[in-house]
Design a protein that fits this description.
- The complex is a heterodimer.
- Chain A is of the alpha+beta class.
- Helix content of chain A is 48%, strand content 23%.
- Chain A has four domains: 82-179, Beta-Lactamase, CATH 3.30.450.20; 331-434, PAS domain (Beta-Lactamase, 2-Layer Sandwich); 446-606, Alpha-Beta Plaits, CATH 3.30.70; 622-870, Alpha-Beta Barrel (TIM Barrel).
- Chain A is built from 30 helices and 32 strands.
- Chain B is α/β, with parallel strands linked by helices.
- Chain B has one domain (20-139): D-Maltodextrin-Binding Protein, domain 2.
- Helix content of chain B is 41%, strand content 18%.
- The interface between A and B is medium-sized, with 16 and 16 residues.
Amino acid sequence: MKRWLRMCLETQVSLPLFTIVLLAVVWATTLHFIDSEAAASRDMTAESASELIATYEAQVARSINGIEQTLKVLKYSAERQGALGALPELQAHGLLPSGLVFVVSIVDAQGDTVASNPVAKPINVGHQEYFRFHQQHRSSYTFISQAMRDEANQDWHLHFTRRLDDKNGDFAGVVIVEVEPAYFTSGYERSRLGEQGMLGLVGDDGVVRALRVGDKQSFGQQVNLAALQSRQGVQAVSTLDGVRRYTQVRQLGGLRLSAMVGLSEQEQMAGFAAQRRQLLWEAGVASAVLIFLAALVWAWVWQGAKARRRVRRAQETYAAASESNMDAFFVLRAIRNKDGVVVDFKFSAVNSRAEQLTGLNRNELRAQTLCTWMPSARHNGMFEQLVTVTQRGGVHQEEGPNMVPQLRAEWLHWQVVGVEGGVVAIVRDITERKRAEERIYHMAHHDTLTGLPNRSLIVDRLEQSLAHAERNKESVLVAFIDLDSFKLVNDTLGHNAGDDLLKEVAKRMVGCVRREDTVGRFGGDEFVLVLPHVNDNPQVLEPLLAKILEAVVQPVVLEGQKVQVSCSIGVSVYPRDGCDTDTLMMHADAAMYRAKESGKNNCQFYTREMNAGLEEKLALTEGLRKALDEQQLFLAYQPKIDLGTGRMFGVEALLRWQHPERGRVSPAQFIPLAEENGLIIPIGEWVLREACRQARAWQDAGLPPLSVSVNVSARQFDDPRLVERVAAALASTGLDARWLELELTETMVMRNVQQSIGKMRELEAMGIALSIDDFGTGYSSLAALKSFPISRLKIDQSFVRDLCGSADDQAITCAIISLSHQLDMKVIAEGVETEQQRRFLHANGCDEVQGYLFSCPVPAEEIAEMLEPVQ
Amino acid sequence: MIRKLLCCLMLALLASATTAAELVVVVSAHSTITTLRAEQVADIFLSEATRFPDGSEVVALDLPIGSPLRDDFYLKVANRTPALMKAYWTKKIFTGRGQPPRELPNSMAVRKLIADNPTLIGYIERSALDGSVRPVLVVH
């Protein structure tokens, strides 16, 4: 209710309401006025009709009275003077009515006209109604006939007739006064009756004797007199012409005749209608003007309200936005001296964030000026800056470390916006962001484990050093350092130990270098040194590098164990070995590999040949990729001989590479390469399939079945899908599993004993035979060996080679033979080249041999040939 | 404009047709009236005026209905055809505002009656004019 009341009081609502009320009043008044005018107009018309009928009745009565008088005079004269003498007598005395209007005539008892004035053609009227009426009725009644025409008078006439009597009172004829019907309506006045008014005489028989509407004269119509009389003074549609009229009818005394007056409603009300139109028009115009003015005022008020609302909303929005904002808002009003120069600023509004930032509440802030609160503003350029923005407007922003103790933040972002009469300073505490940025920067450029610069920072530093060296004609050394046995530490002592080792080594290296040098970590166990400011002789830094070698080799205690690692260092020198970072690093890397190759724990400076070796390696790797696709690889088979029977019982499949340009490439050269880049997996799988296929092909050719053994590389063995792949190779070639033997090495099996046993059991379960290759050269746990499902040990050829000259090798060989027999395994010696060796092995119980003594590795076809003679 | 021209043409024709029977409006030679304008004459004959301009009573005398002289007179003096004259008098009589002038058979009878009575006025053929009456308007 209250809400409604309040709404109504608002101009934008009350104004239309008021306008509507005003319009209602205007229209109610107008319509009421029109109503009363209509009533008045109707009353006036009715009254006018009454007046007219009175006048008309009097006129008609007098006229008929005059006619009757004439008839009486005629009758008197005719009865006295005779029909012929009557008219001249009356004429002489001026007693005849004007011949212009009236025709008087005398008819004898036979109906012949005897005399008439004006003179007319004599006719017989014996058949006429009036004649017969008078003939039959002995009365002095004036008969009023209907309008008619006869030969004597071609115009339509009403006949007023009276009976003539002779002395005896018998019928002697008729006296007639004829008059045109129009005579009775000649009193029609347009000024009073209008164009559609009506004057008329109606007989009691309902036949119209005379009628005039406007200029139109008529007679003879039949009307319902009773109905007309009953509707006196009321407007009704006339049956004569369909016009609505106010009709008055008055019976004429002593005559069977009624006078009738009609006033057309339309004409009589025309004045009213015009007035009504005028009033409606005026009211309409007034309404339109009113609405227009109201609309104007309303629009104006609405604009005002809208503007106020907008301002209020803007203020609320600002308040809400500034209050909830993470930025501190200071609205500063400039304080000017009388010359208009800004001398200070006053805090006119601040938000809660500003309170937090300053540690003062807003009342305390408002009580102060900028410079009293922060005197340093005058000296540190802040005040000047604010004055500039105040005068020039615009936006000024900057960010930087906080210089004033009044604000509680380390880093601030300032945005100063000029407004009317001052500035708004929006201050954001960006300390967190800055710290995060620093952290991110550090993270992006440093190794998380050791805190040393990472690759990208090292490259940066190196580039800077190179630029500096170029200007100063100096040299820069880039050293790649790789820990030699890091992988072993990681594998045996775990990754945490590995990490600790890296940290310790990093610390030691940092301890060895000069202040301007950079020690970085590239990832894994690779470290990089950038050693700038070196004069033409780079060798001067050799002591430094030696110090590093020495420092690294010092034992480290990890997980309670003393561990000793060494490192290999490769060095390239700017500008001698290259001018850009990529080249220098690549060359340092090559030198480092050379150091590794040269027995580790040493330092190598880059030389040109190293680069050649590297390129060779790259070319071979590329060639190897193609080799598999272009079928440059093939298998050779070396027979394995049972010493007891002297027969070939199986073959070892050996991979060969026929390079299209280089010819045969040594497996010792390309297999480590394939191991390094992972190509060994697809190559290994191909070897497996090809060997199986060949074994099956021999069998299919009707040759005695041969066991075929295939070497498995470390990477292949680590492949979790190894068993699956072997099964697939057997299935696709259709070779029975018992004819396949896989040769593993001690090292690969010992790396993860549990996993290896699982894998080997699975393979054994399939029926595949497993053997240990190169036995005696690697690291073996005899305990583990016992639990392996191994069927055969292969004595490494290094022991067999010097079998005849070395007592040690003989002892080892005998030990292996004895060990395998103890563990229920067969033993095979490889690399048997002489008869002496064969004899020794046979004598000491070795089961099987292979070697050049019997056959070098040969293509598959030759194996088939070797087998055939046996059959 | 065309109507005006037609009127002029008709008047001219009528004038030429009735040159032989020129009309004069006459009063008694004893009357003080010497001349009347056509409108004044028309008013008297149409019963609009019952007195001469000098204030003395006047009664008009007419010729019989249908006589050419009468039709000519009203046409020229009152500018009304016989039909209009009939309508005029019909209304006059009905509303009781007047009666048409008394009719006399011919110019001679009119002249005779007027000669002795200065209140009378009539119209006669010019040829019937003599000293007993005074023409006050010649109708062409």
